[in-house]
Amino acid sequence: MIKLDEIKTLDKQDPLHSYRDQFSLPKNTIYLDGNSLGALPTRVKQRVKAVTEQQWGEDLISSWNTHDWVSLPQQVGNKIAPVIGANPGDVICCDSISVNLFKLLSAAVQFNTSRQRNKIISSSDNFPTDLYIAQGLQGLLGSEKCHFVDVEEEQLLSQIDDSVAIVLVTEVNFRSGKRLDIAALTRKAHQHGALIIVDLAHSAGVMPIHLNDWQVDMAVGCTYKYLNGGPGAPAFVYVNRALQGRLQQPIAGWFGHRSPFEFSPHYVADTGIKQFLAGTPSVISMAAVDAALELFADLDLQSVRTKSLQLGSLFDELIEQHGLQDKLQRLSPTEPEQRGSQLSYAFDYAYELCQALIDRGVIADFRAPNYIRFGFAPLYNSFEDIWHAVQAINDVIASEAYKEPRWSKRQAVT
Amino acid sequence: MIKLDEIKTLDKQDPLHSYRDQFSLPKNTIYLDGNSLGALPTRVKQRVKAVTEQQWGEDLISSWNTHDWVSLPQQVGNKIAPVIGANPGDVICCDSISVNLFKLLSAAVQFNTSRQRNKIISSSDNFPTDLYIAQGLQGLLGSEKCHFVDVEEEQLLSQIDDSVAIVLVTEVNFRSGKRLDIAALTRKAHQHGALIIVDLAHSAGVMPIHLNDWQVDMAVGCTYKYLNGGPGAPAFVYVNRALQGRLQQPIAGWFGHRSPFEFSPHYVADTGIKQFLAGTPSVISMAAVDAALELFADLDLQSVRTKSLQLGSLFDELIEQHGLQDKLQRLSPTEPEQRGSQLSYAFDYAYELCQALIDRGVIADFRAPNYIRFGFAPLYNSFEDIWHAVQAINDVIASEAYKEPRWSKRQAVT
Predict the structure, then answer these.
(1) Which of A236, A354, B51, B71 is the most exposed place for a label (fewest CB within 10 A)?
(2) Residues of chain B with CATH 3.40.640.10
């Protein structure tokens, strides 16, 4: 039987406790949706104001040089690099995950397909945009050149053979929170001559990632979840150093040119990670990401992972302590190490439960058709948050408050 | 002989005079670079603060619904529509010009090429990113499917024949400021069965544009120049209603799906303009654009064009009045109606002239190898600005201050 006192002690002993003070969190709210949209780091407010009012407003065009807007994509990329186990110079911040996946998949298809090897393989439960981008590329190039196949997540490893050109996976499943073994998938891919592209949307910033050590070929990721870069913030691209300069991505915008400011009519790709830029960077949004990443400068991601697993396990135990485990059907793996930083449950009234929790100041996430996700952000979620959240869930379920007819359907955004 | 008093009278009589008060302009600066980066509309400051601190900070994930972030791309598109002569529902705000051109060119190639008709034709003096994107697409699809050809700007109209699938043009040339006759190019393209894609980067917001009346097929444009949306702000896409639903763009991200929040593993494109979305919209940057566009709500673009031409003509006359016309070689057309809203001059020391002008508080734009651009933004530039700018140019050239050895080479950004 876990008691609130013990939980308060956990918070006092938490080595990450002071990070919470660096966020602007709404009062009387327990926010368990950082896996969808990370909270606002206080320092981002000042940076956004400065970049808008001083840099744009006062210094205008000269800011491209004086405030070095022109290299923001690299600067931000270099701050992301240690978070994902990459070297500086191998990561760049730009565009959205969708656009970046299109660049990487196109480059990989051109580099690694042949008549015998033309498959892109992914799991059918991958995040939809990843699947859609592969489908869109197949539509453009034709299925002889680029044949997209999706298989059950559990079959993915065994289905990698010599017909596969590209393995496209997301480290942590957005729905179940299940974490895949990227090192093992990479080894298998390479044994069969395939490239691997990893989507880190639900893992970057909340656990150690070792792209270099795992020898991952390419990756994309999101800055607006556990990296707290702001709604729809620019995404990132990683390309293994061994592949840089050997790939050609087709969205050949001027920022990917070797010398964009020569205004030559002929495209010559930059030989480094800069090739993966396309258009002019979105300065205000990217400056927000840059400021948010300062929180990660001296952060030990292993301690983040440890707390993330503790938060999840506590949640799980409290669900059981309230006897809710028969009502909420857990989709996430039983073994904590196999999870990302979320717990997902199927529940017939998941949408209504989510709304009733909002009424009680607990923010979780509904996903069609019938499940609810609770995300744990170790930088600002406390153990006490978990205690009160599960109390609220128990209150709603015990009272059947979720059956109130007043909820109107809403859209949900990852 | 034009005198300062007459110019002050012009400002007093200017029907757009009050717009200048709606911008936060730096003191003691004459900003003639709004064709590169528009100035900061004061209202954008409040909007950026609100979207960051209240919407993101306080309302967090619920803002996708309560603040309708989810339809920002359409809302902003609908505000751009009247500025470019389009109907609501035919324009959407997203990504960069480079990424958007890739979407449109790919869709157009799939729709309109055949063995006999496989050319994309553009002018070799088009803005480089437009050329690069066509080159990148040819690299991906092969030159049998997609054969990119660039010709001299003057030859463009005559080179459109039945082998051309797509005409790719920018209405106003970024270098010379020359304005092309889009209506005539569109007629010629259609006579030969070609589609036309128009880049409005240097025209949107500074002159009337009539995409619907001209029957243009597709267009892209920039919000950070004359629309004042902020550095690297999201661009826009226009697709003629007659083509919507008949095209398939390949960057098939989840926001272009008919029902993105069903999280289906199969991509089904939206049948309207929403298909041209890819990833999650960049909310902070797009909210800035949204606020900036409020200035255009009741604006008569013909009066903007009239003032733009007056500012340019005054600049031209004052250059002549100072006897500078032999030193600065004008690249822009002589006839004002054939110009956009800029004047460009070749000058051996263009870079140094630009720097010496900055020292005197006049901001213009250097472009490699040897020319200087002066952009006229009728919403915040006054006639008196022009007077003082040309005074400063005359001062620098007469004193040969541009020969001072202290200038260090800088990069220039459009």
Answers:
(1) B71
(2) 49-296
* Backbone dihedral angles phi then psi of residue A47, each to the nearest 5 degrees: -65, -40
What helix, strand, coil percent values describe chain A, rounded to 5?
Answer: 45, 15, 40
Q: Which residues of A touch B257 (CB under 8 A)?
A: 128, 132
Q: Is B97 on the interface with A (CB under 8 A)?
A: yes
Contacts of residue B301, Cβ cutoff 8 Å, sequence gap at least 6: B83, B205, B207, B208, B209
Quote ipTM for the complex: 0.96
- Report the interhelical angle of B4-13 vs B383-399 (nearest 10°): 150
Instruction: Give the dihedral of Cα atoms A127, A133, A135, A136; nearest 10 deg.
Output: 150
Give the active site residue among A79, A373, A376, A380.
A373
Which of residues 332 through 361 in chain A touch B, CB cutoff 8 A? 358
The answer to whether A409 contacts chain B (CB < 8 Å) is no
CATH superfamily of A4-31+300-403: Aspartate Aminotransferase, domain 1 (3.90.1150.10)
Of B48, B58, B136, the CB nearest to A48: B48
Cβ separation A232–B96 shorter than 8 A: no
**Per-residue pLDDT for chain A (414 aa), expressed as one digit of tens each?**
999 999 999 999 999 999 999 999 999 999 999 999 999 999 999 999 999 999 999 999 999 999 999 999 999 999 999 999 999 999 999 999 999 999 999 999 999 999 999 999 999 999 999 999 999 999 999 999 999 999 999 999 999 999 999 999 999 999 999 999 999 999 999 999 999 999 999 999 999 999 999 999 999 999 999 999 999 999 999 999 999 999 999 999 999 999 999 999 999 999 999 999 999 999 999 999 999 999 999 999 999 999 999 999 999 999 999 999 999 999 999 999 999 999 999 999 999 999 999 999 999 999 888 999 999 999 999 999 999 999 999 999 999 988 887 765 544 454
A125 touches chain B (CB under 8 A): yes
Domain with CATH 3.90.1150.10 in chain B: 4-31+300-403
End-to-end CA distance of chain B: 34
Q: Which two tokens stand for residue A8?
A: 């308060």
Work out whether strand A235-239 and strand A91-94 pair parallel, antiparallel, or are unpaired. Answer: antiparallel
CB contact under 8 Å between B48 and A44, yes or no, is no
